[in-house]
Design goal:
45% helix; 149 residues; alpha/beta; single chain; 5-stranded parallel sheet; Rossmann fold
Length: 149
Amino acid sequence: MTKKILVMGLNDSGKTTFAKKLAYALNCPHLNNDEIRKQAKDWDFSSEGRKRQCLRMKEMAEALDGFVICDFICPTEDLRQLFEPDLLIWMNTTKHSKFKDTHKMFEDPKWFHFQIRSKQNNLYDLAIKQIKSLITADFSTLLKKDGSR
């Protein structure tokens, strides 16, 4: 059974750096939005293009077994609900996107399991330690879709 971990936030927030470290720590696959778009040759950032990419990421993740780390901006609550992460990590380290359309549409998540507010490696390491501890102890307590624990 797949457990999708979504690392989301604005561009340049450290999503990929953190996701790579987390995937290494959990010894699991990492799907990066830019790499998946590159493979699909799909650089459409319209609402429909973003939805298509979200579904593409979800489908690819769900084809794998165990934990899968996915990192992408996932700018709206609708897209996050469409993706259906089992664990949501918000990289809240930057307040403005260099892409005006992304900045305009970005919505802070209504719920998340972890929020990272700094790109410092020691904070990344601490968050990874906490995440590993939680999912090792009892991942099922983390899976409530309403954000409660």
